[in-house]
């Protein structure tokens, strides 16, 4: 399977070939939850939220990386939500 560089962890980046492609081995896909993309800012337009993310949510299609995290906000204090909402956060 071929993967874009933005979807790779640091270990996978080291495996990348000179043309920027990498072939994932068995078990590499499990590490996707630990990926924190440096410089990544999630700032979609309203149209992008509805046409891509919401439609995928309604169709029960998952994303390779969880950029919109689902959580029960009633189980957390309001001041704890921002740190829990980051990619790779708890």
From TrEMBL:
Q: Does the keyword Transcription regulation apply?
A: yes
Q: Which InterPro entries match?
A: NAC-dom, NAC_dom_sf
Q: Name one GO biological process term.
A: regulation of DNA-templated transcription
Show the GO MF annotations: DNA binding
Q: Which residues form the NAC domain?
A: 36-90
For this UniProt record, the keywords arranged alphabetically read as follows: DNA-binding, Nucleus, Transcription, Transcription regulation
**Keyword hit for Protein biosynthesis:** no
SUPFAM superfamilies on file: NAC domain
UniProt xrefs under Pfam families: NAM
This protein's name:
NAC domain-containing protein
- From which source organism is this entry? Aegilops tauschii subsp. strangulata (Goatgrass)
